[in-house]
Design a protein that fits this description.
- The protein is elongated.
- The longest helix is centred in the middle third of the chain and has 32 residues.
- The strands form three sheets. The protein has a four-stranded mixed β-sheet with strand order 4-9-8-6.
- It has two domains: about 60 residues, Ribosomal protein L9, N-terminal domain (Ribosomal Protein L9, domain 1, 3-Layer(aba) Sandwich); about 80 residues, Ribosomal protein L9, C-terminal domain (Ribosomal Protein L9, domain 2), CATH 3.10.430.100.
- The termini are far apart.
- The protein has three helices and nine strands; from the N terminus they run E-E-H-E-H-E-E-H-E-E-E-E.
- The chain has about 150 residues and is an alpha+beta fold.
Length: about 150
């Protein structure tokens, strides 16, 4: 079934994408939850008009994201964690701590837009995280885990 997404859905598509999904997934989950609409010919025409009106606004958002990328390239984070004598972290470091460290530097970034390249961080050291600021605008941020 061909549908038009009304919001970003991870691993499926971005808002306003026209995609094909299985009929049951569309009818039983996406459409009832308001995440998508059925792509009828009239809905496609309305969708095209909306996209034309939104193109200018998206260009401005992309430019703003690029400006933030330029500012973030110079940022290096230091995150403190409680550790054992051997350098193992009690618990783990996740995107919440990275988001909080960025907020201290003046960048309000949602933790859901941050991806840590390593699966689980359990030791002190240097790591890297990827931040998605817009659909195709990403930046890698180095961060260091130190013992408190």
């Amino acid at each position: 079934m061909e549908i038009i997404l009304k919001q970003d859905i991870q691993k499926l598509g971005n808002r306003d994408d026209i995609i094909n999904v299985k009929d049951g997934y569309a009818r039983n989950y996406l459409i009832p939850n308001g995440m998508a609409i059925h792509a009828t010919p009239s809905a496609k025409k309305i969708h095209e008009e909306i996209l034309k009106q939104r193109a200018h606004k998206e260009e401005q958002l992309r430019e703003q994201a690029q400006e933030i990328v330029e500012k973030l390239k110079d940022v290096s984070l230091i995150i403190g964690a409680k550790t054992s004598t051997k350098g193992k972290i009690f618990g783990s470091v996740n995107t919440i701590q990275i988001s909080e460290a960025l907020a201290e530097k003046g960048f309000e970034i949602d933790r859901r837009n941050i991806t840590i390249k390593e699966d689980i961080i359990k030791e002190i050291g240097n790591y890297s995280a990827s931040i998605r600021l817009y659909k195709d605008v990403k930046v890698d941020i180095p961060f260091e885990i130190i013992a408190e």
